[in-house]
Design a protein that fits this description.
Oligomer: homodimer
CATH topology of the largest domain in chain A: Creatine Amidinohydrolase
Number of strands of chain A: 16
Shape of chain A: globular
Helix content of chain A: 25-40%
């Protein structure tokens, strides 16, 4: 009798198929883990529970659209990490994760969407059995409490299952370790930048009066996923955004099937993605002659960009970068209170930001070579908007743009 | 001086631009809210905190890629609901949500990604001021504790901000209200089905030996987003899946840039989406003559589908449907322990299931006309797989397939 996977019994561990190529060496994964465990050792906790898919990928290479059911990596302060996922997805982890078969644990299918039990009940029990999580009051662990895919109910199940272990918030511990990129990661960002350039040029060609928004976005997505010869595209953590006309005054409305009109402006925000590394890029396009307020705003923002790029180098603070921009646009009577950029690297839906460093007022984080930012200058006005952005890698010499798409307002007449 | 939105000050409320068309009448939103409040009244709680983007959309029409920062709708057991979101996204809510300006509240930008404070601190304080959430021990509310975008930290902030109000798990209360679709929702599902059919036919044409997986998926996504004339496509909650060759034994690995080979099989799982309503659809394709075990499996599953379709009608239980399938495939020596379907309707990343009813052993939920299911028959074997699925609307007469793509194994020679 043949049995499908998906049940609680240990899955048979298959050979890794030849089409699976991990983008990093085992040595690199080992170094990443070591850095995380060094930070953990300073925090007086027994283990870290990782739930953010980007952090799972960073630490193990595990990569699948499986984050809609609970999954986590338990990283003890000393020793090997263990991955817990739905049984049918544990199978995929055997293929993609830099973990031995004994480090991957699939929970049974009957735990999915039950009112009376939760997968994290099972995870807690199994992790204690394995000795990677402690149990009982007096012990302390830390967990990614603000991760998108670690629900409140999952947290309560884990807490109860560990019999009142103290669970502190990890405060994005792994995300902070991801901040400075290794040479191999910098290569991934460069590939992502090449794709982003191709995608934006496709988008600027596709946007025309008379075309439906959905048809323009379809062209953008095709270019994103197809990528380039030798450098395949991957899915972005955020779908392409195309705020148009009056809705350009708010940044996150998705497309509709209405037709683009001559005389209106649209902002296009998208990303090039390779092996989960993101290079986001935004431009604003005017279909026909742009109004004076849009031209003036674009010119002021370009000046602001030049000013901030002077500060975007090792040794300066995020605050320095932000204030160079605000001083420059302030000379044109403009202000912007939301941040002007954030750290990028690996991304999974719903966000390609790393949720650590923001380029904003008061941030005293000191810039280092190997950091990467999405510098995003979005001016969301009342009934219109202007947005331009650049993915930038910091080198010892200063900011390195990952694309070479011309800046400023694009006018199609 | 011009000021961009994004700060804490109340946003100016613009007129709704003419391109925003809400897909449902205000009357329909009022009825949905009333049904939710009726259930709440029976639960002895003061209010419900809704965080699932699909539930926000269902209750208000609010639709944006804004769920990566905290947002929620507070539904008091009596009276008007209030929406809380990042200030720049509150602006979008004014456009899309069936809420008055006084019901939309934007939290300040400085709350984003801070170690020392959290947007839910602000939401708790503001909701208490407005009188839509109670404060202090002795009061009780309920919240979507297992929603993807209500983090553990958000929960702890809310609990502390409400000074020890008791917070129970809503157990997917709104999702259960969504289970039976209104006539207007059924229309949306029919449109989604039309798109799904177009997308699958595109996919079956695009998959060819010698093409890269990423190029095939690019064609699929183009068809999804473009949609049909008069019926624009929307983004799916899950990217197209294309498990191939040996990795077809696990369902959720995403594409790579390797080239499809003659002689191998792939499963294609995708959705047609219109106005956030999803019609998911899966098929398996053999490039060249399929091996006997794949042909046999496909034949057994087709027989299983016919058997379950007999039971998929008002008055039967989910258990009845599941056991009809397992009996049929059991005659061929096959078993399947994971569920064979789940309720569908509105979807947002990362999942297009409604997280309520599963077609599985032991589920005594009684089927009703107006329910909709993704019947998914995935046989994930060791090193290969077969998968076929149908989006189905239940009518008084029985199951209505939302697409008419031929079933069974597709062979391309």
């Amino acid at each position: 009798m043949t049995t499908t996977t998906g049940q609680g019994a240990p899955t048979r561990v298959p050979r890794v198929p030849p089409e699976i190529i991990r983008p990093f060496s085992l040595q690199e994964y080992a170094e990443r883990l070591e850095r995380v465990q060094q930070v953990l050792a300073g925090r007086d906790v027994a283990a870290l529970v990782v739930a953010d898919p980007a952090n799972l990928y960073y630490l193990t290479g595990y990569n699948a659209w499986s984050f809609y059911t609970p999954q986590c990596l338990v990283v003890p302060t000393e020793g090997e990490p263990h991955l817990f996922a739905r049984a049918m997805d544990a199978q995929g982890a055997h293929y993609t994760a830099a973990l031995g078969p004994h480090q991957v644990h699939g929970y049974p299918e009957f735990l999915i969407h039950r009112p009376d039990t939760h997968p994290m009940d099972w995870v807690a029990e199994r992790a204690v059995e394995l000795g990677v999580l402690p149990s009982g009051a007096g012990s302390r662990i830390t967990a990614e409490l603000d991760s998108h895919f670690f629900s409140a109910r999952g947290y309560l199940s884990l807490r109860d299952g560990l019999h009142s272990v103290e669970i502190t918030d990890s405060q994005e511990l792994v995300n902070w370790v991801r901040l400075v990129k290794s040479p191999a990661e910098q290569d991934m960002l460069r590939y992502a930048g090449q794709i982003a350039e191709h995608v934006m040029l496709t988008a600027l060609g596709a946007i025309e009066p008379g075309r439906r928004q959905c048809d323009i976005v379809a062209d953008i997505q095709h270019a994103q996923t197809s990528g380039l010869e030798g450098v395949g595209g991957d899915y972005p953590a955020i779908v392409p955004m195309l705020p148009t006309g009056a809705t350009a005054g708010t940044p996150h409305l998705t497309w509709s099937d209405r037709v683009m009109r001559y005389g209106e402006a649209a902002t296009i925000e998208l990303a090039g993605v390779h092996q989960r590394y993101h290079a986001p890029l935004a431009r604003t396009v005017s279909l026909g002659r742009p109004p004076a307020h849009l031209v003036d705003c674009a010119a002021a923002v370009s000046e602001g960009y030049e000013a901030l790029a002077e500060e975007l180098r090792p040794g300066r603070t995020c605050h320095d970068v932000h204030s160079a921009f605000t001083r420059a646009i302030g000379r044109h009577g403009l202000t912007k209170e939301s941040r002007i950029g954030y750290s990028i690297g690996i991304g999974y839906p719903p966000d390609w930001g790393e949720r650590t460093v923001s380029l904003r007022e008061g941030s005293q984080t000191v810039l280092e070579a190997g950091m990467a930012f999405h510098v995003i200058l979005g001016m969301w006005m009342d009934g219109w908007g202007y947005e331009t952005s650049e993915p930038i890698l910091l080198t010892a010499e200063g900011p390195h743009r990952l694309t070479s798409v011309p800046g400023g307002l694009t006018v199609k007449t």
